[in-house]
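User: Predict the complex with cobalamin.
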Amino acid sequence: MKFKESMMDSRIIDSRILYVRLPCNPIFPIGVVYLADHVHKVFPGIEQRIFDLGTVPPLDYASALEKCIDEFKPSLLIYSWRDIHIFAPVGGRGGNPLQYSFEIFYAKNPFVKLHGALGGLQMLKSFYTELWQNQSLIRRGLKRAQKYNKDVRVIVGGGAVSIYYEQLSKSLPKGAIISVGEGEALLEKLLRGQDFQDERCYVVGESQPRQRLIHEAPTPIEKTACNYEYIESIWSDFNYYLQESDFYIGVQTKRGCPHNCCYCVYTVVEGKQVRINPADEVITEMRQLYDQGIRNFWFTDAQFIPAKRFIDDAVELLQKIVDSGMTDIHWAAYIRADNLTPKLCELMVKTGMNYFEIGITSGSQELVRKMRMGYNLRTVLQNCRDLKAAGFNDLVSVNYSFNVIDERTETIRQTIAYHRELERIFGADKVEPAIFFIGLQPHTHLEEYAFKEDILKPSYNPMLLLPWTARKLLWNPEPLGSFFGKVCLQAMRQNPNDFGREVMNILEAMLGCAPLEEALTAPIEQKSKPKQLANIS
Ligand code: B12
Ligand code: SF4
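Assistant: Here is the predicted structure with cobalamin placed in the model:
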């Protein structure tokens, strides 16, 4: 036993871990930072290095990675892949996908259709190039590292992998571990030489992902403040993210979301159990960044206040920010505005919240209920009034996704009424309507609904973006699909720089605005109606 333990210890100490954040827009790579910090706390003797391809020009990706591997000679390669899905309401990496697809599907003018087709092709090219490039970087890195250590292991994880873990096995090297969700517990077990297959992962070529793997609850770990002094010592490009003064650095204050919104995968990636990071630890983490000159923070939680029972935790954290004397900071987050109190509003303003996103999706209480979102829209309005009264005078992005389920002329008119009321509260220039069309994601209730309604076959590949699947994945079904398509195209033509507001104006001019009270009242569903999405579990 003793001998076995000492063998294990020497294996741990011999590990040399290289974290490679795969190419990504400049978003602070908080995932690998937290992983490296955790591993260091548990195994302080392990040598680690962070290499962020987000800071490298595209033409140098492969050579820079190989150079790093030659220098560091890792025995464990950790690849972090943040995003794959490129459906975005605004210009994404390959252009504006919403515009292109709507041009192809809904434009009458053949030249506009052609523009959409060419743009769409360009977008597909950039999507597949990026996929291919990342997979090739993983294989190439492995091959290079094998020069120095033939037993080197590869683990792949991160936001994108968590969602497309089933599809990715086909293109990753045999023996690679594919991880879903948080990676801390998995890395710990792997480094201890323990069996790790009960964690949310599987090994390419050796095991298949368990059924509903992503729905398994993550192993809870108590998060402590990230030690940035250590991170700086293993990451030569750390300063890259400190240079721009308007850059928002990620800090996580909790994990998990208890809700069930039909289109959302966060609640399964992070799990429904909300785990709060102790406020003192969050403050210690922020303080280190603050001392480095950081003034903008993004609380990267799925939701900063996931439910009423977490209001006290938010209050505690914000009060501690006030007490810490970090008075000149700004922060942003996804906020469920149904969970605010006047006290919390006051603290939000006092601590410098200068941007937040509310994902109500629709201004019709009836539809919000059907999408299982658990929002009371009347409460949201009242809380927004409290926030304004507390002195909030910055930007709010309100996410609307039309046509998710049961949308009708009346519900569109209700959404307009709701939006106009938000404008009355915050000021029209401060409320930015972000018009999304839901990008259908695997493991969501909406996906189940699509199977049930025969819109998609269970065998579809969510990563295969052929035009006919793309049309279904960018959720905008008929009978209203073409109507919204035309409205959006008109808005893009008339006012591309203020697309969201233009869509709202066009819709109001065409359909009018409902009385606010109608938007806030959800009629009880009649028994004879066919079962809707809200009944799928
Ligand atoms: C906060 C957030 C944002 C913020 C980021 C703010 C900031 N400054 O950091 C904002 C609003 C700006 C944003 C924007 C976008 N986002 Co976003 N965002 C998130 C969110 C909610 C949390 C991400 C996060 O930082 N979590 C905290 C850190 C600590 O976790 P993490 O990075 O995931 O790392 C952990 C694990 O993944 C794992 N892990 C990571 N790497 C590895 C590697 C290995 C080997 C292992 C074992 C484990 C592991 O361990 C880490 C520590 O626990 C996630 C959804 C979610 N709930 O995860 C989406 C998410 C990452 N975003 C996503 C997308 C698509 C985007 C956009 C591209 C959307 C768009 N179309 O415009 C943009 C642009 C991003 C860009 N690159 O340009 C997708 C990516 C997956 C996909 N669909 O392709 C996600 C998963 C949401 C989703 N389901 O669609 N986003
Ligand atoms: S949309 Fe927001 S509130 Fe709903 S499940 Fe997702 S993270 Fe939670």
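The chain has 20 helices and 14 strands.
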